[in-house]
């Protein structure tokens, strides 16, 4: 990738990012779009969303999105801290060293905009140069900073998780066990067997039981019933149903041929030199691709603000009454898709921090955008449907450890190709030390995310014994669990047109 192409990509994506953010700032204040941009609020928010996102404290995030939301935001906080240090090392030290190298002698520095960005990578450092000691030192510095911050975050979030458990309200699952493979005696039932066993051997802690039935077929029937009911309800609001039949026709796409892969011809006398350069530059070429990929991610993460799909659905529903939503229920946060995406950019930033440090400012910009955008979205758009208490943090920790080890292996290989064998040898203990650090953190903190300690459980029991509302809670445990498929179907009988029965009795 040449410098001018990278500058163009940065300019285009920066312009799109500003455009999307400006569009969001304008639409969010209009009352018709409250259901899209602030479904958790009864009115259109005022003021700057950036300033509001900055002012919100961690307690505000916890109140709005639970501990899962707090831990999700801590991923951005951790990433910003790590890549702020890594960017200072990479951009402030390694990039000037790479730029002043003379390995790529064919590059004319007077015409830099039309040349490749390779001059900013480790490929431009002379083989066997003493300047590679700076890259070697950077590997240890980045690893040390990342491990320190990983330990700090693991400890901090572990404490938050214990605090979350001690201050949480009692839940039925805390007083429930699941029993399987229950033997049945002749003439008895599963319910009788369970009741007899627990009353005989656990009379002081047994309250009641509920038999779980296989209701898969019944659930499917109920789901189909609900879908048909909603369709009928939506059609009821259409003044002229015949207009729905005028649907747009589908267009067939044209299949074009793939561009043939370009074949490179190499002169015989340059074969040995070219092979060596290819082995040195394999990682660097991939880095150029990922730099462009990270730059385009700015637009992707900013589109989270505009909620494009929800906005189009809202506009279509305003025109076609058949698609109008019956309510403006706030959606839930998709942690399962957002967290892997964040971890991918962390992986790219760490693995290419030594080989191609030019990627670092773009990765740091991505995390800064995500920090402000998701703090805003968690408070205004997404409503938590459940709260795991931040149980996904060990995944973040382990993925970062994997990224560090991969960075070590890449650095060892690059130093070997750059004829710096001493540096490669001295890096061999680093991945081992990193894995030992990971094992230590796992032994110390991971059990807190798997199950609560006996000490915590006993302390919580003692704390709850003095609460007067516990008697009412225990009395409600007997009816806490009931299969939704076995509940009677209830429809609103309000005489209002929007809630009137769909089919009247004859």
From TrEMBL:
The chain crosses the membrane at residues 6-27, 82-101, 132-151, 342-374, 394-415, 422-440. Its main location: membrane. InterPro entries: Csc1-like, CSC1/OSCA1-like_7TM, CSC1/OSCA1-like_N. GO terms for molecular function: calcium-activated cation channel activity. Keywords: Membrane, Transmembrane, Transmembrane helix, Transport. Residues 6-153 form the CSC1/OSCA1-like N-terminal transmembrane domain. It holds the Pfam family RSN1_7TM. It is found in: Membrane. Residues 283-415 form the CSC1/OSCA1-like 7TM region domain. The keyword Transmembrane applies. Residues 485-506 are annotated as: Disordered. GO terms for cellular component: membrane. Belongs to the CSC1 (TC 1.A.17) family. PANTHER family: CSC1-LIKE PROTEIN HYP1, PROBABLE MEMBRANE PROTEIN DUF221-RELATED. This is CSC1-like protein.
